Amino acid sequence: MPVPAPNLYPPFNIVRLSHVTYRVTDLAASRAFYVDTLGLQVTEENDSEIHLRAMEERGHHCIVLEQAGTADVGVLGFKLFDEPDLDKAEAFFRARGLPAEWVERPHMGRTLRTRDPWGIPLEFYVKMDRLPPIHQQYKLYRGVKPLRIDHFNMFSADVDASVAFYNDMGFRVTEYTEDAETGRVWAAWMHRKGGVHDVAFTNGLGPRLHHTAFWVPTPLNIIDLLDLMATTGYVANIERGPGRHGISNAFFLYVRDPDGHRIEIYCSDYQTVDPDLEAIRWDLKDPQRQTLWGAPAPRSWFEEGSLFEGAAPQDSALKAQPIIAP
Amino acid sequence: MPVPAPNLYPPFNIVRLSHVTYRVTDLAASRAFYVDTLGLQVTEENDSEIHLRAMEERGHHCIVLEQAGTADVGVLGFKLFDEPDLDKAEAFFRARGLPAEWVERPHMGRTLRTRDPWGIPLEFYVKMDRLPPIHQQYKLYRGVKPLRIDHFNMFSADVDASVAFYNDMGFRVTEYTEDAETGRVWAAWMHRKGGVHDVAFTNGLGPRLHHTAFWVPTPLNIIDLLDLMATTGYVANIERGPGRHGISNAFFLYVRDPDGHRIEIYCSDYQTVDPDLEAIRWDLKDPQRQTLWGAPAPRSWFEEGSLFEGAAPQDSALKAQPIIAP
Amino acid sequence: MPVPAPNLYPPFNIVRLSHVTYRVTDLAASRAFYVDTLGLQVTEENDSEIHLRAMEERGHHCIVLEQAGTADVGVLGFKLFDEPDLDKAEAFFRARGLPAEWVERPHMGRTLRTRDPWGIPLEFYVKMDRLPPIHQQYKLYRGVKPLRIDHFNMFSADVDASVAFYNDMGFRVTEYTEDAETGRVWAAWMHRKGGVHDVAFTNGLGPRLHHTAFWVPTPLNIIDLLDLMATTGYVANIERGPGRHGISNAFFLYVRDPDGHRIEIYCSDYQTVDPDLEAIRWDLKDPQRQTLWGAPAPRSWFEEGSLFEGAAPQDSALKAQPIIAP
Amino acid sequence: MPVPAPNLYPPFNIVRLSHVTYRVTDLAASRAFYVDTLGLQVTEENDSEIHLRAMEERGHHCIVLEQAGTADVGVLGFKLFDEPDLDKAEAFFRARGLPAEWVERPHMGRTLRTRDPWGIPLEFYVKMDRLPPIHQQYKLYRGVKPLRIDHFNMFSADVDASVAFYNDMGFRVTEYTEDAETGRVWAAWMHRKGGVHDVAFTNGLGPRLHHTAFWVPTPLNIIDLLDLMATTGYVANIERGPGRHGISNAFFLYVRDPDGHRIEIYCSDYQTVDPDLEAIRWDLKDPQRQTLWGAPAPRSWFEEGSLFEGAAPQDSALKAQPIIAP
Span of the secretion signal (chains A, B, C, D) (predicted)? Predict the structure, then answer.
């Protein structure tokens, strides 16, 4: 079996992915994209930073936009279950010789900053400032009506190794793509919170962030966003979709922010809370793997991604290629 | 605070609600309703029983229909995380002087049969036969396109006590209704699997089952079901809705099966995996509590429910009344 | 046959309903309702008048809101096909001893002002100022995303007579409700533009305007409006729905403006351009006539309406009653 | 101005497009596609012919499938307003030296068979057998829930000339594409029934039928069809879409039947009944003309089409090319 058995008793309890820090080169342009177009809500902003949340989130932020000279990704954040999990996490990373330091982060309690073995910057916390619910303030809904952050997808130069490491942390594989020739895993989707994924890994020059995804109510919201972007100067930012993924069965759209950071708009995958959920295998050459309806993804989608601050990407040894749009 | 703090370290680990056994007086009529109208899939049937699953479920059944002389509810089933949780559950119930026996159930592994303190028949298991996925066999989708069982709602003669007992088992309150005059909880919604609820309790003659709910993709599927039921002889089985709940923010419809068992069709509540999620309080007299758009529920919805086999219901001491449609 | 045969060669060619003038007692409150909540676009406004159009309309206005001491309806407007039709219309009304005068109306060419035999103020024109299309300026879409004015529904004290008169003008009956006891028509739906109706008549104290309807893209837009109104102080303005009409098969919602003028939000009826389209008959006592799903309309919906300026309503002789919600 | 002014007083009154006869090489395969997959209703069938209607149509058929040795198109049918229009049509075609004969067609009254100047086989009638309404028999809805035939799109070797001829017959241009270099019309959309088109012409090897379109309720029905086709062996029959057209603003999908005849699934264009509706001009090189969201159509979509029985296609003199997907 090419993917590891689920680790039902992980060393510390990760509840879900939580937030991402995007470093952007023009904060006003990014604000126009994330706030005015996608419809995320500003929870705090100044000249150098904007904190955003989606409509059903009560934590203070799911995205932090930071004005920077170069566009990259500052950190991926995860929420842990309880205070002792923070100390257990520290022990887990230290035992593997990985960095682990306690940092101050606004709006967050004790925060452990670390990196995975390939340099992806991670932070773990238990408490983030909680805000009053706004999910029933319907006059605030705009754009694609983003409800919550759903997942991160990362390029990995060694997906088998990435899966093994995140499996150790308790992420469970729900679906994966195998390269039939080598028997290696080409991509994998892994969850903590009961959907198809909190994190996914795709073979390629890595580590890089492929995309961050937001959950929306229905496919019609995605069509609304396409109509809006197409008529407000963002037509070139539409990269792929709309479509139905074979993997995850979700309805999707990929768009690029003004710095090229990729955002997926995503809805209607399925519930995965059963610990005995069988992972679904896909063949790399199956044309319906990417898009159930048969349309391949464009080359940019396979090749472009956001660098993580402080992590130099490496080429992947696995050279197998999926079907790419001509 | 009228609802207990979440029990983050429960005595055994319940993953989610799993299934219900409905005893029905005309199996063919029930089949026409659940299979041909709602669109559930038959996984096994004979002259006296039909097993059904929803489209994204891989467990063998979420409903068992049993031919019986009298319509009632046989049992509510819950899936546990791992084998040791079964033994811990047995100890939990025995310690409280409640029945706990190991029973044989087709398609299920070790199964613990018990009752809650008011007599609601419960069963717990870890392993149920797993079936191949059908969520991408779109030709099988029919009716309301039910994706998965979502929750049980029960009448309780003492909601505060029911909440305390299920809280002990690890169910966490997400929203509740308070009777302002007495300070007592009139209704509560409690989850394990990360949605607004796996179980809910409503003040009234109890224990009785108020309804079982199924999750569907979008509100348009609910409109499709209304059109179908209205033109296939089921117009009198439409009890309440469609509408948006104030509580849970879900889009809903309530229909009655041929024996009067109530089924809710439900979609678009919100994610509740955060252990520090603040429960939302509603006042019993708030007209938007039931339906955000202001329409009250009919009297039948407040008064009628399904008896549990072997459990005699008692009147509630709390006499406070919500707004009822004239 | 209780409804007249269609008049395929009418005396003048009415293209479609066009606009309504609502006299309102608080122009700012009406603006908040029609512009900020429903999402109509302002094409001109000053302290005493606001002109509005819907998203796919190129004519200057479909609603004129006029500040007035008393709320009523100023006029119902209809677009004619060509200039000679205006003179033919004048001859038609004069021949029946009805008023017919040429009036100046801003943004409109030659305009014939008249009244039907029961005093409903009507105006006919061929040319109205044409504005650039905005249907692909998606950033302007708001509220319920109203696309176009769809129809007027009027109380009539003698529906048979109203149908006969409007049939003479070329409106064709698509559906009607008969009182089985008397054989009289209780309500009728009549079109010019190829949908189920441009005008409808309902038995009751008349003439009064029952409602003006706007066409929207899908039922989900109606659900969005309900969510918005329910959380912005308009919950009491939601009168009936959402639902599927038996008659017309349309999905509907009825709301009341700040003066009580009734607006229907409407979508998905059917095409009626065939001149040999058979009118569909409904019995007044059929519960699915009003709402296919069985829910009756509230009493206010049957009894309340807007007065036409200068037209005193009369009681209807036909006393038959539909099913009314308790 | 590159398109002619609308002919408000045409020589005979065409109500709408009505039906198409497709000659197919495997009637059973075509039935599986049109009936089981798209969801059209069989109104009559035998070993050599199947008649179909869509859900809101009351005329006997909108498609006739005929078993044949070679796949092509037998005829395009149009409904006229009244009996005298048939004789006026005969005179119109005879005056232009075009064929005009009275033919017997099952289920239809007097039927005039003719060809346009480029050989497209046309038939005109007033009366077709009328069937009971089924639009409220919701148990019959399947597949994409087709409501009615919407339009024909034809390749023309001289679009300017085709537009002039159909304009003479009273079709009015709603939108058109101009080749900026030559000032010639590259494509045009023309209506009779009040939508964006009953007929359209596209520059290319012609005459050939580019596609027949069906109107469906909402974009979600199109997504449902994609999911169904993708999982029932029709993934290769999905040619283009889903997307939003720039021209017409409609939401679309193009699929191919088992013989390669192209069917468009279409919804949400706009009302065009105003005789003074201004035609919208698009530049051939505008990437949003084809798809508002920017995705170009594939080469097959520009090059492939169905031959008309008995009409040899000619190359177009106009060589200008739109943007084609690589």
Answer: none
User: Which residues, including other chains, have CB under 8 Å from residue D75's CB and lie 6 or more apart?
Assistant: D20, D21, D113, D121, D122, D123, D309
Query: Residues in chain A whose beta carbon is closer than 8 A to a beta carbon of chain D?
Result: 218-220, 223, 226-227, 229-231, 235-236, 238, 242, 244, 251, 287-288, 292-295, 326
Average pLDDT, chain B: 97
- The interface predicted TM-score of the complex, written ipTM, equals 0.97
Which candidate from D235, D244, D326 shows the least CB-CB separation from A226?
A: D244
Predicted confidence (pLDDT) at residue C307 exceeds the cutoff of 90: yes
Tell me the mean pLDDT in the region B312-316.
97
* Segment A185-240, tens digit of pLDDT: 999 999 999 999 999 999 999 999 999 999 999 999 999 999 999 999 999 999 99
CA distance C220 to chain D (A): 10
Q: Is the peptide bond before D296 cis (omega within 30 degrees of 0)?
A: no
Q: How far B232 CA lies from chain D's nearest CA (Å)? A: 7
Residue C122 tokens, joined:
């009507």
Contact between chains at A293 and D244 (C-beta distance less than 8 A): no
Best residue of A35, A137, A138 to probe chain C, by most C CBs closer than 10 Å: A138
- Pair A241, A181: CB distance under 8 Å: no
Distances (CA, A) of A88 to A8, A116, A127, D64: 16, 16, 16, 71
Q: Å from C20 to nearest chain A CA?
A: 28
Residues B283-312: what's their mean pLDDT?
A: 95
Q: How far apart are CA D315 and CA D304, in angstroms?
A: 13
Query: From the list D220, D229, D294, which residue is nearest A235 (CB)?
Result: D294
Mutation to test the B interface, candidates A147, A215, A274, A282, most B Cβ within 10 Å: A274
CB of D182 closer than 8 Å to CB of D320 = yes
Burial (Cβ within 10 Å: 0-12, 13-18, ≥19) of residue A152: buried
Q: List the domains of chain B with CATH numbers.
A: 14-130 (3.10.180.10), 144-307 (3.10.180.10)
Q: Is the pLDDT of residue C1 over 60?
A: no
Preceding peptide of A132 cis, ω within 30° = no
**CA torsion sign, D98 to D103 to D105 to D111?**
positive
Binary contact (C274, D58; C-beta < 8 A): yes
How far apart are alpha carbons D270 and D248 in whole angstroms?
A: 7
Q: Is the pLDDT of residue C54 over 90?
A: yes
pLDDT at B191: 98
Q: Whole-prediction pTM value?
A: 0.98
Q: What is the pLDDT of residues B142-190, one digit of tens each?
A: 999 999 999 999 999 999 999 999 999 999 999 999 999 999 999 999 9
The predicted pLDDT at position C326 comes to: 78
Closest CA to C289 of C193, C190, C187: C187
Residue B324 is predicted with a pLDDT of: 87
Pick from C220, C230, C288: CB nearest B219: C220
Instruction: Kindly indicate the confidence band of residue D238, based on its pLDDT and cuts at 50, 70 and 90.
Output: very high
A273 Cα to chain D: minimum distance (Å): 25
Is A289 exposed, middle or buried, given 0-12, 13-18 or 19+ CB atoms closer than 10 A? buried
Distances (CA, A) of C141 to A228, C55, C92, C251, D218: 9, 7, 41, 20, 18
Q: Does residue C197 surpass a pLDDT of 90?
A: yes
Residue A21, pLDDT score: 98
Instruction: Select from A16, A217, A271 the Cβ nearest to the Cβ of B268.
Output: A217
Nearest CA-CA partner of B154 in B306, B325, B326: B306
User: Burial level of A232, CB count in 10 A (0-12/13-18/19+)?
Assistant: middle
What single-letter DSSP state applies at residue C303? H
Closest Cα to residue A301, out of A230, A229, A225, A241?
A241
Q: How far apart are the first and last CA of chain D?
A: 33
